Amino acid sequence: MFRFRDWRIYNEARALRLDAHKNLIPKIPEKEKYSLTSQIQRAIDSVILNIAEGSYRKTDKDLAHFLNQSLASLYEFVAALDLLLDSKYIKEAEHRDFCEKSENLARQISAFSTFLRKQ
User: Fold this and answer.
1) How far apart are the first and last CA of the chain?
2) pLDDT, tens digit, for every residue of 78-106?
3) CA atoms of 96 and 102, how far apart (whole Å)
4) 108 Cβ contact list (under 8 Å, min separation 6)
5) What is the value of pTM for the model shown?
6) Gap between the Cα atoms of 64 and 41, Å rounded
7) pLDDT score of 49 more than 90
8) Partner of 30 at 20 to 30 A CA spacing, among 65, 89, 97, 112?
9) What value does the mean pLDDT take over residues 58-66?
10) How far is Cα 95 from Cα 34, in angstroms, rounded to an integer?
11) CATH no. for 3-117
12) Residue 93: what pLDDT?
């Protein structure tokens, strides 16, 4: 019934979220709890939630629209990674690792959206 649960993009987005909660969020100081931490959590959650919401839509064009919203949230997550690096909350290697995972997911979401729009 919930077809999105079988999609690779959905499951990789969930894995990225878990990784962020385990390895990024704890490194952010308490003073950033209601700003940067909250923004990161909302952005990565939005990636997942837009994939799920779009899966219910009746047309491929509608699903592609939600995938694009998901992609925009992923870009926001990457910008937040840059802020974490600039603030020295994470190291360069951690930044690179999360950016690579995000880029891989972005390619997959984009390819799926392009495929749907050509249908």
Assistant:
1) 22
2) 999 999 999 999 999 999 999 999 999 99
3) 10
4) 8, 9, 12
5) 0.94
6) 23
7) yes
8) 97
9) 91
10) 21
11) 1.20.1440.60
12) 98
